[in-house]
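Weekly structure sync, notes
Attendees: PL, DS, HV (note-taker this week)

Item 1: Lysophospholipase
DS walked through the input record. Source organism listed as Candidatus Borkfalkia excrementigallinarum. Sequence as pasted into the shared doc:
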Amino acid sequence: MISALIILFCILLAFFLIMFVLSLKVQFSIYNKRYDGNKNLRYFSAGDFQGLLAESIEFSSDKGQTLRGYLYRDANTKSPKALIIFSHGYGAGHTAYTTELNYFVRAGFWVLAYDGTGCVLSEGRNLKGFDQGVIDLRYAIRYVNKEPRFAPLKKILVGHSWGGFSVMNAVGEDGIGGAVAICGFISGAKVLAQNSIGRKIPALTFAVEWFLKLFARISFGKNANQNSIRSLQATEKPIFLLYGSEDRTVSFPKNGEVMKKTFQSSDHVKILICKGKAHNPYLSMSAEKTMKETFSQIAKMKKKDSVAAKILYEAIDYSKITEEDPEIMREIVSFIDGVIQKK
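Item 1 (cont.): predicted structure, written out as tokens:
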């Protein structure tokens, strides 16, 4: 009996240590580096869009690190309808979304967009963690709330992917009228576990998630392990959630479908499931298809011939992969218009 218990203990200890090391590897591979975009890709700037102005802005986040970005506006828009505070997704900074930012400006808004800690224009040795995105957004909101020129404007949060997660968990901040979250995940630890061990051995997702939550607690203390469901349940502010039914980056069944079931009867949460769309539902079906095919081809070629891969990068037709879905973009603007018209 004692021998059996010793064997069981050794097995459990070995499992614990293996999961710990695996989780630590996942943690460091994603969070322990900067994200400065892909040097082979072109990121649009204000100069690529007629009449789009970009004024440099900067503010401090939680540890004193300077976050930088721009206030985007139209030269002819003296009285904007509202101020949109935009939170970008994982992998690059806010200029990966300049086409969308320009759309919002053309719709009559000012847009304040910045790069998070450890990303592109902003300071920080590394990303730190997905919870850092929520912290950075809260400091962006504080910056906006202290600026006299923004005082008359309603403030709306908009974010995609990691930014969607940040938006859902910061919408309760003072001065914010509502939010639009596109493909935002429920939990940072959960989505990271789903996209690492979960893709190969789904049964072990829970173990990696547990360790990632522990690491987050060590890194962020009381700000650790933000949860989008809890945050949306704690507010009555209007929220618009958009998800692609075919999204595999932020797994739709494990995120979008869960949010739909949780909030389908909610009065303050609007949910739109974009049929056939993947992780960028604001793009046209054609753009998503072209993007997937293009980057899949490049990924395969990089393993064989880096020079040939670079040629493929140079041949990218950006007009095709940034083509927006006008219906989805109109839905977003219509929602924001509805929010700012409420007293």
